[in-house]
């Protein structure tokens, strides 16, 4: 993983040298170098380690996800604010298997820092509602569940929300 500043410096250098190559009539080299600079700009906004951790999570490999997240030594210094949100979101998912109090802290921090996609926000709120429900904090859980339902525009979480509402009636 490259530091944020190094990514921007590398992108700028490749962009400048690519422009010089185009000016010097080496158009193919210039276009290739500009594409490399675009790659560095892309990984500035989309962290490669978090992307690989999501791939491990997609395969339901919690240990592998934890391993990839451990490669990020100092998330505040090396990640953009939204990436820190996803870092905490992934830790919340991992900790929800182990310790609900720690998972609640991570999900709240992820929502505070912000997540890019609305379905990720809805899933974080739904997970937080489940944690609050297990801790017998029904009012807060209902509030989080309503917020998750409001955010879930495409209806991907409707079955989970219905199941959670049924479980809340039993409390």
Describe this entry's structure for a reader.
This protein is mostly helical and 171 residues long. It has 2 domains: 45 residues; 124 residues, Tetratricopeptide repeat domain (Serine Threonine Protein Phosphatase 5, Tetratricopeptide repeat, Alpha Horseshoe), CATH 1.25.40.10. 80% of the residues lie in helices and 0% in strands. It is built from 10 helices and no strands. Helix 6 runs antiparallel to helix 7, helix 8 runs antiparallel to helix 9 and helix 9 runs antiparallel to helix 10. The longest helix is centred in the first third of the chain and has 20 residues. The chain starts with a helix and ends with a helix. The relative contact order is 0.08. The model has no long low-confidence stretch (mean pLDDT 89).
Question: What secondary-structure arrangement, pairings included, does this model have?
Answer:
Elements: H1 4-23, H2 27-45, H3 48-58, H4 62-70, H5 75-78, H6 81-95, H7 100-113, H8 118-134, H9 138-151, H10 158-170
Helix pairs in contact: 1-2, 3-4, 3-6, 4-6, 6-7, 7-8, 8-9, 9-10
Q: Strand-and-helix sequence, N→C? A: HHHHHHHHHH
The CATH topology name of the largest domain reads Serine Threonine Protein Phosphatase 5, Tetratricopeptide repeat
**Count of strand segments:** 0
The major beta sheet can be summarized as: none
Estimate percent helicity: over 70%
**What is the total number of structural domains?**
2
Taken as a percent bin, the fraction of beta residues is under 5%
